[in-house]
Amino acid sequence: MPIHVRAEPGSVAPRVLLPGDPGRAEWIARTYLEDPVPYNTHRGLLGYTGRYKGVPVSVQTTGMGAPSASIVAEELIRLGARVLVRVGTCGAVDEALRPSELVVVQGAVPLEGTTRQYLGGLPYAPVPDVEVFLALLRAARRLGVPHQAGLVVTEDAFYATTKEGARAWAAYGVLAFEMEASALFLLAKMRKVRAGAVLAVSNQIGDPELVPPEVLQEGVRRMTEVALEAVLEVE
């Protein structure tokens, strides 16, 4: 049994959605999965397995940041996960993005330490599995969900980022900042599984506060439905 995700063999589905927030994991499981069964509560890393349209799907909390997400991803893969999709929030730097819109992640600039440690400092360009990326893009289009596809920055220090520093990345095509995708993409390549990410915009970086909860929740709903529809297409 893994150290942190204390699940029995066979309790985790091959397809797994990865929210950072345990409350969001529970909401996804209770709202969208048929007969969800909890398989882990240790350290607040809530995990559930049920069925979506008859297909086994798990929802697993990662916690915040690349170090925590990498631990969870490693252990899920040992438990049989083969398709991992991050479903989280992001702070936009592209001024065209509006609250609750989605970002289908095409690549992640790794401004974090987890990938650097795995790689021994070597340069690397973390990208999602192409089939997962295309499935997410198709699902967003099919469902008519407002979205953009492109680059994000994965960072470590949430409060260290300045508005000016973040917005400078927009000139290089970065749409938003988040905290887990680059490590997830690297680990998936290393462990020979598939990974992707779709994010809901919570705010523009530099805004004094997040958008109203009901606006963000609409983005989370859209994001979850896009991710669930996408994982049905990928094996």
Automatic annotation (TrEMBL):
Its EC number is 2.4.2.3. The keyword Zinc does not apply. InterPro entries: Nucleoside_phosphorylase_CS, Nucleoside_phosphorylase_d, Nucleoside_phosphorylase_sf. It comes from the Bacteria. Keywords: Glycosyltransferase, Transferase. One of its GO terms (cellular component) is cytosol. Pfam families: PNP_UDP_1. One of its GO terms (molecular function) is uridine phosphorylase activity. SUPFAM superfamilies: Purine and uridine phosphorylases. Residues 15-229 form the Nucleoside phosphorylase domain. CDD domains: PNP_ThPNP_like. GO terms for biological process: nucleoside catabolic process. It catalyses: uridine + phosphate = alpha-D-ribose 1-phosphate + uracil. Belongs to the PNP/UDP phosphorylase family. This is Uridine phosphorylase. The lineage of its organism: Bacteria, Thermotogati, Deinococcota, Deinococci, Thermales.
